[in-house]
Amino acid sequence: DLLILDEPTNHLDFAGIDWLVGEVARFGGAVIIISHDRYFLDQSVNRISELDDGRISEYSGNYTRYKEEKLRRYESQLRQHLNDVKQQEKLAAEIANLKNWSEKAHRTSRDAARQSGNGKKEYFRVKAKKMDRQVKSRIKRLENMQRDGVGKPKEEAGVFFEFESPDKRGMRLIAGTAVSKSFGELRLLSDCTFFVKRGECIGLVGPNGCGKTTLIRMIIGEQQPDQGEIWISPSARAGYLSQNGSETDLTKRVIDIVGDLPVALRTKARTVLANMGFKEDVIEKQLSQFSMGEVTRIRLAELIFKGCNLLILDEPTNHLDLASREQLEATLVEYGGAVLLVSHDRYMLEKLCDRYLVFTGVEAETGTTEKTQGSGDGVSRGNGAGGGLSGGAGGGLIRVDGSLQEWLAAQAAAGAAIRRNQGPSQAQIQAQANGGSDDDRGQGERGSFGDGGEGADGAPDAAGPEQLMAIENRIAYLLGQLSRYKPTDSEYHVIDRELNELMAAKKRHV
Question: Do residue 294 and residue 327 come from a single domain?
Answer without folding.
Answer: yes
